[in-house]
Write a structure and sequence with these properties.
The chain has helices spanning about 30-50, 55-75, 90-105, 120-145, 150-170, and strands at about 15-20, 25. By secondary structure, it is mainly alpha-helical. The protein has a single domain (about 25-75, about 85-105, about 115-170), classed as Hypothetical Protein Ta1238, Chain: A (Up-down Bundle). β1 and β2 form a beta hairpin.
């Protein structure tokens, strides 16, 4: 259980951050970049939840937010640490089930779609792009220090989940905003 009595510790004033195993790394390291991007992704998912104002998609995304904290803990734990909180295949599989459930209610894509429409749909698309950035940061870290492969799979699947969720919400609101190639050329 986490207990924070004091928010500032001054231990990071010199530019380092503590990891779960007690080691310290530069705040400019690939690991801290990935952890920061994961944190930003979680905030973007929170914005999407707020824009949704409740409902089944918001409920699913609350689960995602908790899992993104798990994922951040996984990324903040280098190497093999007994009892470390790690992403597991079941978390990835649940996203796939939810993607399939939402996608079953949608018409097939016939065009690229614009990341807009209602505030909720736009927020879901924004969250998707932030998750993709977090995935790129995690892949960069993985190239120098191996990560849990389920962490990488989760981020990859989550961006798909958010894309389908955006389409699912858009369908309830009249449909996707379609890209019209060259529409503004004279």
């Amino acid at each position: 259980m986490v207990k924070l009595n004091k928010i500032y510790t001054r231990t990071g004033d010199g530019g380092s951050a503590g990891l779960v195993d007690g080691s310290r790394v530069s705040k400019a390291s690939l690991r801290m970049a990935a952890i920061g991007e994961i944190d930003e992704a979680n905030a973007a998912v929170g914005l999407a939840i707020a824009a949704l104002g409740g409902g089944d998609v918001a409920y699913r995304l609350l689960q995602v937010q908790n899992e993104l904290f798990d994922l951040g803990a996984d990324a903040a734990t280098p190497g093999e640490v007994e009892g470390a909180l790690r992403m597991i295949p079941g978390q990835v599989a649940r996203l796939e089930v939810e993607i399939d459930e939402m996608n079953a209610a949608l018409e097939p894509l016939t065009s690229f779609i614009l990341p807009g429409g209602s505030p909720a749909v736009a927020a879901l698309h924004l969250a998707r792009t932030v998750v993709r950035r977090a995935e790129r940061a995690a892949v960069a870290l993985n190239e120098s220090e191996p990560l849990n492969p389920h962490l990488l799979a989760y981020l990859n699947r989550l961006s798909d989940h958010l894309f389908v969720a955006a389409r699912f919400v858009a369908a309830r609101e009249g449909g996707d905003v379609l890209w019209q190639p060259g529409a503004t050329r004279s």
